[in-house]
Amino acid sequence: MRFGGRLQLNSKKASPSQELTCHSCGGRARWRGRIPDAARFAGRYLDAPLPGGGLYACESCRLNFRFPRLPKQTLDELYVRGAADTWEADDGRRPDWALAREFLMSASVPKTVLDVGCFDGGFLDSLGAGWDRYGIEIHPDAAGRAAQRGVAIVSNDIDELDRLDAEFGVVTALDLIEHVEDPLLVLKQLSRLARRGGLVIVSTGNTEAGSWMLLGSRYYYCAIPEHVSFINPLWCAYAAEKLDLTLVDVAQFSHQAERGLVRRARQAALNMIYAFLPGLMVAARSLGLGGFDARRQRYLRDYPPNWGAARDHLLACFRK
Ligand SMILES: [Zn+2]
Questions:
Q1: Could you tell me the distance, in angstroms and rounded to a whole number, from the CA of residue 191 to the centre of ligand 1?
Q2: For the chain, which end, N or C, has fewer CB atoms within 10 Å of the first or last residue's CB respectively?
Q3: Could you tell me if residue 296 is inside a domain?
Q4: pLDDT tens-digit profile of 259-290?
Q5: Within-domain flag for 282
């Protein structure tokens, strides 16, 4: 198995004694802990668990990342096999879409927008008339649906960003950069496609969120196997300086803020038990409680409970 970049380990098994060189900036990355193995990828249960590896934090650029990672080819195959309705939940009320729309509407930029990882075009559709809409999407069914909504699909692979010869008033990548090995490289590619004075908007998880700080490498968001890279407001500031962009704003939000109080309290309580009484969680799940049937698949006993109602995401707006 080959792992890209400069990161090479003799052993596939990450352990606390290992220190890595950050593949993005070359700085020193320290171990934050083991990431639980995962049972699902892109909405489908797998025959065998995917190894979680470890979570590392770079002391220079502040990037957090999973290591070891699965090769990109393996990940791409898993994505394409994933359920097409996995990322659906979109009725235009998504908080990241609302935040992104605010930046778009308030900026005086040409009304051309490229959404990288546009899925079925839901965000672009929510902009309403008056925008020329372009998208990049790997999932064929989703890309087809986006096209039906009037989105011009310019590519199905973000590896082709460098080959695109076009400029847009706004380039967005919502819930994308947690999936890529080097977010700085991708932000650079995105900003090349924005015209001078245009906006680049990204949203993703925030490692500095309180809920994440509580659980570290055992936080549900980094245990999702398709997630490999994690940023925070300090990384955004670093990236802006490095790429000669202006960091307009970093807004924080929750993907499930609209969930009822009971559901939010339940998520918080389960995560508190998971954090402070992990033995109790394991015991409950061994009996088939706690959201997973861990009686047959023992590794599920240690899988983190969802905490999507936590305010653990950020949306960063850069101006070129
Ligand atoms: Zn770094």
A1: 19
A2: N
A3: yes
A4: 788 888 989 999 999 999 988 888 888 777 76
A5: yes
Contact 193, 135 (CB under 8 A): no
SS3 content of the chain, % helix, strand, coil (to 5): 35, 25, 40
**Is 189 within a domain?**
no
- What is the total count of domains within the chain? 1
Distance from Cα 173 to the centre of ligand 1, integer Å: 21
CA 314 to chain centre: 10
- Please give the order of strands across the beta sheet that includes 152-155: 152-155, 132-136, 112-116, 168-174, 194-205, 313-319, 246-253
Q: How far is the CA of 67 from the centre of ligand 1 (A)?
A: 14
Question: Whole-angstrom Cα distance, residue 80 to residue 21?
Answer: 31
The pair of three-digit structure tokens given for residue 27, joined into one six-digit string: 């700085």
Peptide bond into 68 cis (omega under 30): yes
Query: Does residue 274 belong to any structural domain of this protein?
Result: yes
Task: State the pLDDT confidence band at 315, using cuts at 50, 70 and 90.
Answer: very high
d(CA 222, CA 6): 22
Predicted confidence (pLDDT) at residue 84 exceeds the cutoff of 60: no
What's the predicted TM-score (pTM) here? 0.89
Residues whose beta carbons lie less than 5 angstroms from ion ligand 1: 22, 24-25, 27, 58, 60-61, 63
Stretch (H or E) spanning 5: none
